[in-house]
Every structure is written in C-alpha cells, then in structure tokens.
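Database export, one record per block. Field names are fixed; values are copied verbatim from the stored entry.
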Amino acid sequence: MENTNTEGKKTLTLADVNARLTETDKLIKNHSLYSIGVGLIPMPIVDFVALNALQLNLIRKLSDLYDVPFLKDKGKKLIGTMLGSGVPVVLSSTIASLLKFVPIVGYTTASLSTSIIGGASTYALGKVFVQHFESGGTFLDFDPMAVKEYFAKEFKEGQSLLKELSGSAAR
C-alpha cells in the first residue's frame, strides 16, 4: 500500500517493494526464457534483431513498474552499451548467429550457444536495470560502465540458472 510523506511524495511499504521485486523477477525470468527460444530462430541475424527487441521490451516493462519514463532510443543505446561493454558476450552471440549459415552442425551449435548467451544477457540486463531503478535511477542517469562488473556477475548467474532450467526441462 502506498503512503504519502510530508512532501507529498509517494512512499512504498515493505510489502509493496517485495511485491514489485517478485514481479520484476518474474518478468526477467520469462524474458530470459523467451530469449532462449529466440536463439532457435533458424535465420542468422534475425535472431539477433529479435533478441534486441525482446530485451528492449523487458526494459520498457521494468520502467513501467518503477514509473520511470521509458525512452526508447536511450534504452536501445544503453542496451547496446551494456552488451558492448561485455565485448566477448556480443561477439560470441554474433558469431554464434552467423554459424547458422553452416548446415546442420553449425545450426545446432549456434542455436545452443545463441540461446544460452541471449538468455543470460537478458537476465543480466534485467537485474542491472532493477538495481538502478530500485535506487531511484532513470534512463538519463544510467551509467553502463559503473555497472559493468555487476552485469558480468549477473550474466554468469543467468548462464547457470538457464542451464539448470534447460537441464531440468530436458529430464
């Protein structure tokens, strides 16, 4: 339940914050799983474009939850910068996408790699933006270089989580 402080600003109760964090976790998990599916798109580069659209959608939904005005162009640039700061992630994702040109073996290898990399990067982006929005940040004061290490940590966590989920789904 929202309250209003003496300056007329809305304040959140602990229950509100917990409910919002539960919702953000659900959004991040769902978008990460969708990102795995995007990696299975058989057309090179199309998967990459679809992944970027999915990640932008996640950031838009998170900004809505935090009542942060969504700036599409700024969001695209921030996502690009975040992923660009983790150059090995972007390069491996792009290379994996291009491997789909190689019949059978290339497609299979690329699809698995693109799926996990896409899902983990989506997970990490979501976690980074939740942390930023929770601290009262907006698109205008987001500094991708300041969260580079946190992104890398969350990317690894996302990889582990998604491998675990995909392993349990295969059983």
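Remark 1: The chain has one domain: 14-166.
Remark 2: DSSP finds six helices and two strands in the chain.
End of record.
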